[in-house]
Amino acid sequence: MKLSKTTLSIATTLLLSTSLSADALSDVQAEVAELKAQTQTLIDEVSNLQTGFEYTTADANKKHSGLGASASKVYFSKSPLSIGGYGNIDYYRNSNENGANTDNIDVYRFIPYIGYRFTDNLILNVELEFEHGGVQDGATGDGYVIIEFMYLDFLLNEKYNIRVGNMLVPMGLINEKHEPTVFTTVQRPNTSKKLIPSTWHENGIMAYGQLTDDLSYHLGAFSALQLGRGIGKGNDWLRKSRAGSFRIDETSERLGLGVIARVDYTGINGLFVGASTYVDSNLVMGDVHFDYNLDAFRTYGVYTQTNRSESISGEPERAKGGFINLSYDLSTLTKYQDKTPIFVQYETVSAQDKVTGGASVDSTDTITLGINYFPHEQVVLKADYAMQKDNSLASNVDETNIFSLSMGFIF
Known about the structure:
- This protein is mainly beta.
- It is built from two helices and 16 strands.
- Helix content is 13%, strand content 47%.
- The termini are far apart.
């Protein structure tokens, strides 16, 4: 009987001990789980700080309202604050028929984008531009720092949105999408310099949106090109007429108003095609543009013409020209995945196709051959060889060959 009581006592003690141990173990497990959750939260917060406050990378498949991938980052950012940008360093060697050679290396551009999302429907987007290494006191170079755009976007719905401020003018292919990973040549085409004077940005207001899944539009009113500056002569007459973000005193300049309309269609697989027009009291500019991708093959191009109603002796009345670019990605023929497109581009530009008084200046024609290599989708190395013939020159030095190298990136 004593043995039985002893056995019962021992069994009861063991049961109580086991119960207490299970409760303690459960408490320990709960504490461990809580500590793990807290640790993961700290890891996530530290990671966000290290990678840029929930940093969003530039995605070539995510573009907003015609902008490039990096300029569009704020619209897709995980954080209210977005930082992106692009840059390129270029080397050129020019030679002509007389054997004259010149070399040039240039920290051409470093462009940061800063965006801020006040709400999901109100967005600030800013582009700063540092060109040719920036500005140095006493320097005689052409470096400068400017605001290339600064605007507020009011996102109302898919079909109708409002943009207010200083913004890129929606003309052609490259004025809005001008990041170095977008086009194959080292330099932007002369069409995008002399005829559609990229980068062209003005103060104004613009409506834009998707009329259908395949059809988009832009309609805006901007400060007009400033043709009355006394710089209306020569091949740069359109380029030098941009007001940009610099102040224009109305005591010395008449601001004027320009209206822009654009439509683009993407209803055919791989094809982007559209047209845009700019009209002010002095001139009408129009263009048609396309970009077609089919597997490893790509072709894109622009044709544009400008007619000026104002007749001033010795100044241009008409400009026209364009380019077509064809490329093929060699990586599709190998086991490697890094894109390596080879390309050829033909371009003809007549910035003074007609001059008041009946004269004209013949075109400059350029054939460019080259190759790109993308070690990463956001990084490109370029090499090309341009054969440029200036048909307007009376002397025998009318052909210039330009060998170019470049490294470019977006982020």
